[in-house]
Amino acid sequence: MRPVFQWSLGGRVLELGKRTLIMGVVNVTPDSFSDGGLYFDRDRAVEHALKLHDEGADILDIGGESTRPGARVLAVEPVTAGRTASVNAPAPSTKSVVSEREELDRVIPVIAYVKDKRPNAIISVDTYKANVAKAAVEAGAEIVNDVSGFHWDPLMIKTLAQLPCGTVMMHMRGRPEEWRNLPPVGDIVVVMKRQFSDWTQDAVRLGIKRDRIVLDPGLGFGKNFEQNYPILKRLEELHTLRFPLLVGASRKSFVGRALAKNGNDAAVGERLYGTLAAETTAILHGAHIIRTHDVRASAEAARMADNLV
After folding, report:
1. Are 24 and 55 in contact (CB under 8 A)?
2. pLDDT digit string (tens) for 1-19?
3. Measured in whole angstroms, how far is the alpha carbon of residue 4 from the centre of its chain?
4. Which residue in the list 2, 134, 223, 252 is annotated as catalytic?
5. DSSP secondary structure string for all residues of 157-215
6. One-character DSSP codes across 235-268
7. Is 44 a catalytic residue?
8. How confident is the model at residue 176 (pLDDT cuts 50, 70, 90)?
9. Alpha-carbon distances of 186 from 189, 191, 230, 257, rounded to whole Å
10. Per residue in 280-303, pLDDT tens?
């Protein structure tokens, strides 16, 4: 049974659990693994966002920096009173391919234009930079989706504590440039539960209310191909943490590997049906939100799966 939550976004509350919500991906980047460059132009990004909204996206997730495998990103472990870093927490880095100014220039105009065209649209900003998060919320975003689990910018937790928005805390091991060489862990679900428990306790203690937090297990983010399957199969075990769950399986490498032919992984554009199978599995095992590039197909699959939940 999927638990029901009230997700506080500041100005409104979203009910999670009665039906699966769909988060549509809008990448304002030249190098995303899934659609790099297709929507890098502001007008095309806005047009794409409006199209996803019309296709049934409950949330539009707008991002200006790719965290594809091999990317270089800024990753600074926050220093906070009483906080001790987990041995498996994301490690620090020192370089970012996209500056804060460049990321702001990419995402803020798109958020503003989408809100102008669709005032009631719920917008999420996909960023790990605190200043980008703050500017995006001021421009109309109601959710901050941080792939680093609030770890890479030492100001993120403090900034989020001062903002009214909803948040998504994603689980990641290491940094994108390290993923292919990370040492294995034992039971990935057990490790994830332990780390999420520590991270969410820190976030709540430092001022982010529980009803603002959604957890994302981060499929593919520092997990090898085989580790994604137990996460999907045992997703409901994360319900013991008492937070809603968001899952993003859309077009990911483990889907391409599962659909491989003649020793070659399926191309990104050929992963739709595998994606839908993974998303349906996630819903049947307790996901509240699905993050996807293919909104119409995922929304229809979710409607069918919801009848079985």
Report:
1. yes
2. 799 999 999 999 999 999 9
3. 20
4. 252
5. HHHHHHS--EEEEE---S-GGGGGGPPP-S-HHHHHHHHHHHHHHHHHHTT--GGGEEE
6. GGGGGGG---BEE--TT-HHHHHHT-BTTBPPPG
7. no
8. confident
9. 9, 8, 12, 22
10. 999 999 999 999 999 999 999 999
By residue range, what is the domain housing residue 54?
Answer: 5-306
Question: What count of residues does the chain have?
Answer: 309
Q: Does residue 138 sit in helix, strand or coil? A: helix
Which of 129, 175, 251, 291 is catalytic? The answer is 291
Residues of 39-69 as b/e, b for ≥16 C-beta within 10 angstroms?
Answer: bbebeebbebbbebbebebbbbbbbbbbbbe
Query: Tokens 């030249």 appear where?
Result: 30
- Asked about 233 being catalytic, the answer comes back as no
* 115 DSSP 8-state letter: H
Question: 246-247 and 13-16: which strand pairing?
Answer: unpaired
- Between β-strands 13-16 and 5-8, what pairing exists: parallel, antiparallel or unpaired? antiparallel
How many domains in the chain? 1
Contact 5, 211 (CB under 8 A): yes
Bridge partners (DSSP) listed for residue 166 = 143
Which structure tokens are listed for 138?
A: 């001021």
Cβ–Cβ under 8 Å, residues 149 and 199: yes
Vertex 248: Cα angle to 284 and 214 (nearest 5): 80
Query: Are 144 and 133 a contacting pair, CB within 8 Å?
Result: yes
Q: What is the pLDDT of residue 80?
A: 35
Q: What is the CATH number of the domain that holds 103?
A: 3.20.20.20
Residue 5 phi, psi dihedral angles, 5° rounding? -130, 160
